[in-house]
Amino acid sequence: MKFYNYCSWHILFLINIISARDWLIDKISDVTTLTKTPLGTLLLSNTLISREFLIEPDFATIDFRDLHATNSSILRCVKPESIITLDGIEYNIGGVIPNTQCAYFNRTDFWKNKAIDTKAFHFSTYEVGKPKAPFAYTPKRSAPADIEWPPKGVHLSVYFIAPYYAPLSHKYVTVVVNYEMYDGIPLLVKWLDIIDTSGRGDIDLSFNSVELLAVNQPWSPFGESWLYVENNQSPGHGTNILWTYDVEVNTIPGSFPPLVNCTYQTDHELVVTLGTQLSSFRVHELVIGSSNVERVALSKHRLFRLLAPHTQENPIFFHMINGSSSAVRAVIDQMAEVGFEMLIYSFGSGFDMESNDEKYIKQITSDIAYATSKGIEVGGYDLIALTRDVGPEWMAIDPNTGKPRDSACFASGWYDYLLNRTLTFMDRTGLMMVETDGPYGGYSCASTTHSHHRNNDDSIYQQNLLQANYFKILRERSVYINQPDYYFYQGGSKTGMGYNEEQYSLPRWMDISVSRQGMFDDTYQRIPTVGWMFVPLTVYHGGGDAAQFEPLVAHQIEYEWALAQYLGAGVAACYRGYRLYDTDATKALVTKWVNFYKKYRPILIRDIIHVRRADMQSIDSYMHVDPYSNDIKGLAMVFNPTSDTVNTNLVVPLYYTGLTDIAQISEQENAWKNYTLARDYHIDLPISLPPLGITWFLIK
Fold first, then answer.
1. Which domain holds residue 376?
2. Residues 6 or more apart from 361 whose CB is under 8 A from it?
3. From which residue to which does the signal peptide run (predicted)?
4. Is 698 exposed, middle or buried (0-12, 13-18, 19+ CB in 10 A)?
């Protein structure tokens, strides 16, 4: 009973602290702590969530609790902290056997019946410190001023040693389970370090489960998906978040026992040679406690901004299709005139980052110096792995055919060559941006002669590791990285917003409309600054004159819509062509929207609330919000794509601005008007827009 009295007191205490607070709009000042409870358990908590660990007779998670939304436990049973395999022997990490049914958590039975698992790796000790940054990062390129890197919080390292019955070689292995919890967000991050102190390097390692949680139904995808679980690897790159039903579904009729296993399970077993130390992927566990689509999106975005803060840099860039010095310098002059910030040598421009031609390197160096003198950074395109032919000795080998794939193996000598060429070119020319098309795409390689992997079984792990290291090195040089894949937690900056490339061959108005719909949908999944869109100033894949925006003076209305909808969304677009304007009129259009973006950049790079999706039959709208701002808390963009004047009231939800009673609204910096918020925090905003009209509203 002592346990329950303590638990009740502790939870009530935390609930009282957090009552009437919403972490998505209120700044949470409570710090993360690790404390020892009267029962001798460890409690890791930031007052939004808590995770409690048993350390006697062995180590186990005995509670994982939501303290901010549902005030309930996520767990229905105790599981091993992790599971690994060494030389074919499977080991649980943490030796507690619950000896209870697992349809739900009967804590009385657990405390009476728990036992030690003699075959598991056993708890040894723990250390407490501060969170560790996976790479160095200093914010630049107008990134938000409130970035903290690494995030503030607590890092807990728990050490496990092999059981008595393990083979002698395994007794030199230490397993470290790492947990990080951060201030002000209901997020836990977990990963494994496996250390072999013998130095022999001959143990075969498999990560069976980095995290294994038996959760209550509402937290799973089979229920309400209140718990969001991801890892820091690109999807489809040899890692999985597997949601299944536990074995109890067959033993306890009527039970619904969800289980999440964060694993390297793929189409073949991952087996890696354990040298001195290997680390697993990182698991991100975000306790949302809601199924509301907007709230889920904002919660995920907050996680993303915290763990990949560099993605909030959002330069305005231009894709140059002509690599000659005269053309490059001409467009640099235009960019400086209108306020663009980065030039990218596009695919098809002739740019070659791997060149060792002295004449070419001198040309690029001179052109980059010219751009730098105008305040413009320069980057360039390179195809680095997927679909890249690099010669037979470095190509990935298909395990089914024994023949080369159409892609390079990133754990071959190609990695060393590419990294050397990339860094050498940057050091010599001043290049500060790369567009790495075709990064490693998750395929295996059956070669037994490549430099950085043994065979097919470890090839995915090692290629992921080296691709991550490539991006990490660039990130620590403050290089801006475009990459069409999900390498953000490794240092990548931006990827495609989710478009189909063929849409930029559509007629201009259809392209603009479909793209605005796509942005609206994709910003549920991504923050605005992490995705790029596309403006085909010249023909891209096809579509001819009907698709391209050139000549710009002939298509001023479409050009302005493209500028407004992308810059107004805080989404960078690839303006691909050879110039930004062709008359004073088109120069004025570009200058107008670039100045708008730069003036309101602090709010435009914040999260989007989805007000009304475009259907091309009436107005549509999205709104940026920043509840922590002391000035502008929202900026709403409104579009009328129809051929008629629209007079209507737009329902604008203001809850996530942090406003509660009165909102002040200004249309395009005109007079401020007061609006009283309804009980559900919305206002009815009068809109009057002419055909093909665009407007915007400031909110404070």
1. 310-383+413-439+479-602
2. 355, 425, 428, 429
3. 1-20
4. buried
Q: Give the type of residue at 421.
A: R
**Under 8 Å between Cβ of 121 and 161:** yes
For 362: left if phi > 0, alpha if psi spans -120 to 50, otherwise beta; the answer is alpha
pLDDT digits (tens, 9 = 90+) for 164-177: 999 999 999 999 99
Q: What is the CATH number of the domain that holds 252?
A: 2.70.98
Q: Which two tokens stand for residue 398?
A: 């298909």
Does residue 398 sit within a domain? Answer: no
The answer for residues whose C-beta is within 8 angstroms of residue 591's C-beta and 6 or more apart is: 337, 338, 339
The answer to the question of residue 86 being in a domain is yes
Asked, for residue 444, whether it belongs to a domain, the answer is no
Predicted local distance difference test score (pLDDT) of residue 20: 66
Same domain, 533 and 615: no
Contact indicator for 529, 304 with CB cutoff of 8 Å: no
pLDDT of residue 6: 37
DSSP character string of 238-278: S-EEEEEE-THHHHSTT---EEEEEE---SS---EEE-SEE
Residue 306: CB partners within 8 Å, gap ≥ 6? 151, 182, 185, 187
In a domain, 167, yes or no: yes
pLDDT (tens digit per residue) in 426-483: 999 999 999 999 999 999 999 999 999 999 999 999 999 999 999 999 999 999 999 9
Structure letter (DSSP) for residue 366: H
User: Which residues, 6 or more positions from 547, have their beta carbon under 8 angstroms from its beta carbon?
Assistant: 504, 505, 506, 507, 508, 511, 536, 539, 540
- Both 300 and 156 in one domain: the answer is yes
Instruction: Please write the tens of the pLDDT for every residue from 178-221.
Output: 999 999 999 999 999 999 999 888 999 999 999 999 999 999 99
Residue 562 belongs to domain with CATH number: 3.20.20.70
Tell me the pLDDT tens digit for each residue of 518-527: 999 999 999 9
Please check whether residues 238 and 359 belong to one and the same domain. Answer: no
- Domain stops at, among 575, 602, 629: 602
The Cα 289–Cα 428 span in angstroms is 51
What is the 3-state secondary structure of 160-228? EECCCCCCHHHHHEEEEEEEEEECCCCEEEEEEEEEECCCCCCEEEEEEECEEEEECHHHCCCCCCCEE
Q: Examine the domain organization and report whether 540 and 628 are in the same domain.
A: no
Rounded to 10 degrees, what is the CA torsion of 44, 220, 300, 187?
A: 0
Residue 116 DSSP SS3: strand
Separation of alpha carbons 548 and 536, rounded Å: 5
Q: Nearest to residue 150, comparing CAs of 489, 432, 603, 527?
A: 489
Which letter, b or e, does each residue of 183-197 get, where b requires 16 or more Cβ atoms within 10 Å of its Cβ?
Answer: bbbbbbbbbbebbbe
CATH code, domain with 618: 2.60.40.1180
Helix, strand, coil shares of the chain as percentages rounded to 5?
A: 30, 30, 40
Domain boundary among 559, 576, 602: 602
Say if residue 589 is in the same domain as residue 645: no
pLDDT band at 283 (very low <50, low <70, confident <90, very high): very high
| 121 and 132 part of one domain | yes
698 has which bridge partners? 635, 666
User: What are the beta bridge partners of residue 160?
Assistant: 123, 175
Assess whether 157 and 259 both reside in one domain. Answer: yes
Q: How far apart are CA 303 and CA 285, in angstroms?
A: 10
DSSP sequence for 346-358: -TTS---TT---H
Q: Does residue 276 share a domain with residue 357?
A: no
Radius of gyration of the chain (CA): 27
CA angle 131, 137, 140 (to 5 degrees): 135
